[in-house]
Amino acid sequence: MFDIGFQEILMVSVLALLIMGPERLPGAIRTGSLWLAKLRRSFSEMKAEIENEVGINADDIRMQLHNEGVLKSIEKTKQQLKNEVDALNIKDDLQDLAKAIDPSSDATPPEFSRAAQQAKAAKEALQAAADNPPEPANPTRVPDQDVDDAGTHEASQPSPADNKPKTP
Description:
The chain is mostly helical. It is 67% helix and 0% strand. The chain contains 4 helices and no strands. The N and C termini lie far apart (112 Å).
């Protein structure tokens, strides 16, 4: 109803304190609050009587107006999209796409059928690979190197003869 900020309330409070004084201000606030409550009550009673006489609730009217506004907005957006699609001249492309997607349609453009064939072939290849996994590779032994029981190569172990100091 009224858009009153903090500064306005503070200014009115200071003026009321200066005009009425600290002794009469609490009684004036109490009286003003009572009158404001009576005024609100009488307005709400009048509103209820008018709604009963007319038979329409104000909230229903607001909701209906809001819904009509939303519907108008949706219709406006729909018309804008239709105009843009017509301006782009892609209506035929969209119809071909709709026919390709529609399973009851027999007309399938070749690019869609080619893509479907490639997808089917890829799926079959993946299924075949999953059904027949490749064998793990066996490690082969190098014939020139001997392997001890721990699986290490003897050639990689330093021999005691290698630790002797060489004499010139």
